[in-house]
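Researcher: I'm preparing a figure for a lab meeting and need a structural model of a single chain. I don't have an experimental structure, so a prediction will have to do for now. The sequence is pasted below. Please return the structure as tokens so I can convert it later.
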Amino acid sequence: MNKLNQFDLSVKLALCCAVALPGHLSAQALPAAVQSAPESEYRINVGDELEVLVWGEDRMQRMVRVQPDGSFAFPLAGTIIAAGLTTQDVRMEIQRQLADKYRNGPPDVTVTVREAAGMRFYVVGKVRTPGSYAAGGEINILQALSLAGGLAEFADVKGAVILRKTPQGQVIERVQLARVLKGSRRLDPGTLATPLPVLRSGDVLVIP
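Model: Understood. Here is the structure written out token by token.
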């Protein structure tokens, strides 16, 4: 086995480990690029069911479903954009919308995810197993690529992009996969200057 094939094999193994690291393995076993992926709170997805409670107002307790456009309606607050946000973000937005409706300032609001629809994304193009995938939480582009079986022959990683639907329309985000996949040959030790892009529900990762 030549050096190039050995490197490709090591990259594929690292990508697989990045998706689900067993508890008995140390994070030091992973490449710095994967270790640097930030951990964060759960972000709300389309289809999630939320419980919204305005304290002291029984009539303002609601179970709401996040609609395909990423929003839901709430009494007196109107339309609230929730997809991609945390429950804390949504709580603060509802408080802001209700503030001028209460004489004594914004009421206490609690937002809880009662049923998570999960995050679904797509990997297409020159990968070994293109298709749709589901994840319970955040997943970066390297982890998504590993779920799709890694790169297929003749893949042009320099042209990789993310297609993302936003309220303003569909946008294209270029991703720097080639530099990361070269490992230590192109990356300095330590924290990545630019964190790996994280996919959102509905995103399409395209590898031409």
